[in-house]
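Quick check before the chapter quiz. The format below is the same one you will see on the exam, so make sure you can read both the input and the output lines.
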Amino acid sequence: MADNTPVLPQIDAGRCTGCGQCVAACPSGALALMAGRAVLAAPEVCAYCADCEDLCPAGAIGLPYVIESEK
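Here is the expected output.
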């Protein structure tokens, strides 16, 4: 990004099943489960390693504007 804005994963709460795989996989501890859904609880420590995105079975985590709706 031209303005050096950090690229953080976006979580689609409507698609998140609350399985917790992303939380368990996050090496920086940036993710948490709240009210049965994954949230980016500590964005300041997220290194965007993409482990959460790769492991999400529901496809609920991705780069901004890249989450595609199911057809």
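If your answer matched, good. DSSP finds two helices and four strands in the chain.
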